[in-house]
Amino acid sequence: MQAKTWQMQIFVYEDDTHTKADAVLTSAAGTELRHTGLARLNPADRNVPEIGDELAVCRALNGLAHDLLEATLTDVELNSGRANHIAL
User: Fold this and answer.
1) Which pLDDT value is given to residue 88?
2) Does 41 map to a domain?
3) Is there a domain that residue 2 lies in?
4) Number of C-alpha atoms within 13 angstroms, CB side, residue 78?
5) Which end of the chain has a smaller Cβ tally under 10 Å, C or N?
6) Over the stretch 40-78, which tens digit does the pLDDT of each residue have?
7) Which of 35, 42, 51 is nearest to 17 (CA)?
8) What is the tally of structural domains in the chain?
9) 10: which residues sit within 8 A by CB, 6+ positions away?
């Protein structure tokens, strides 16, 4: 069995009330997928920056997973010539 390495990078940016996370996945073949997640501090909540980081990163990774599934479905359809239903 051959091992392949995919690289994942997560960049987190924040100010006093907003957090943005960019999740970047690069496949062994060099294909890159990127998704952004955002979080906002509710003025009624205590300012706990780690919570904003977690939420923004979670949203970025969730979106990235969806984007990867969509790319996979498109690749399967392009290579098989027919619509496929992949079970997760």
Assistant:
1) 67
2) yes
3) no
4) 6
5) N
6) 999 999 999 999 999 999 999 999 999 999 999 888 888
7) 42
8) 1
9) 21, 22, 23, 24, 57, 60, 61
Contact 14, 20 (CB under 8 A): yes
Cα dihedral 32, 88, 38, 53, rounded to 10, equals -90
- The pair of structure tokens assigned to 80 is 């098989």
Residue 15 domain boundaries:
7-80
**Any domain includes 76:** yes
Angle made by CA atoms 40, 44, 48, in degrees to the nearest 5: 55
Residue 81, phi-psi category: left (phi > 0), alpha (psi -120 to 50), beta (remainder) = left
Q: Strands (DSSP E) along the chain, which ranges?
A: 7-14, 18-26, 32-40
Per residue in 1-20, pLDDT (tens digit) is: 999 999 999 999 999 899 99
Looking up residue 48, the CATH number of its domain turns out to be 3.30.160.240
